Amino acid sequence: MSDSPTPLASQLLIALPSLAESGFSKSVALICQHDQDGALGIVVNRPSEYTVGEVLEQMGFEGGSEALRSQIVLNGGPVHRERGFVIHDGGTRWDSTLPIGEDLWLTTSREILEAMANGEGPEHAVVALGCAGWGAGQLEQELSVDHSWLTAPADPSLLFDTPLEERWRAAAGRIGVDFARLADYTGHA
């Protein structure tokens, strides 16, 4: 992974109601990397069927607080569903750590999970299986032509403190959007 933040990195993509029929209906995705080749994001408001404790056990790691072990793993997107991604705070760098924004990191190394199990991980972290990906120019098309997403700066409190079921409306509310007042379709003049 590249070591430098990219244009839409650390932005939240907030699905507009017009995406209701897609797999991204009411999704919030954190863009972790964006460049001329495309974008990578993690959906941060979709629960998976797993807990962090189950993932740690599957990887052979014992330990971890009850709060950590009971934390829900996110369904991070339809790409690389078998791969783990950890969004976290703190400046500790493990193998395969990408800076996303100010005090926000993405790590794909199993070392971070081992550190978390040993009580040596970041103060705040969310674990996801899978990611979302956009090819070259695809995200730009979805933003400027299709009008499928809103963008907002990433907010650690939204990622680490806001309940999953509240993140879509809370993310939109950060930029003054109330989905109850927004049409569920887009048009072109």
How is this structure best described in words?
This protein has 189 residues and is α+β, with helices and mostly antiparallel strands. The protein has helices spanning 52-58, 66-70, 110-117, 138-144, 156-160, 167-173; strands at 11-15, 28-35, 38-43, 47-51, 72-75, 79-88, 97-101, 104-107, 125-135, 149-153. The chain is built from 6 helices and 10 strands. Strands 1, 2, 3, 4, 5, 6, 7, 8, 9 and 10 form a 10-stranded mixed beta sheet that branches. 35% of the residues are buried. The model has no long low-confidence stretch (mean pLDDT 89).
Uncertain stretches: none
Q: Which series of helices and strands comes N to C?
A: EEEEHHEEEEHEHEHH
What oligomerization state is this entry in?
single chain
End-to-end Cα distance, whole Å, is 41 Å
Q: What is the CA-atom radius of gyration, in angstroms?
A: 16 Å
Q: Largest beta sheet, briefly?
A: 10 strands, mixed
Helix content: 10-25%
Count of separate DSSP helical elements: 6
Overall average pLDDT: 89
Beta-strand residue percentage: 25-35%
Large-scale geometry: globular
Short description:
The chain has 189 residues and is α+β, with helices and mostly antiparallel strands. 21% of the residues lie in helices and 33% in strands.
Secondary structure elements and pairings:
Elements: E1 11-15, E2 28-35, E3 38-43, E4 47-51, H1 52-58, H2 66-70, E5 72-75, E6 79-88, E7 97-101, E8 104-107, H3 110-117, E9 125-135, H4 138-144, E10 149-153, H5 156-160, H6 167-173
Parallel strand pairs: 5-9
Antiparallel strand pairs: 1-2, 1-10, 2-3, 3-9, 4-5, 6-8, 6-9, 7-8
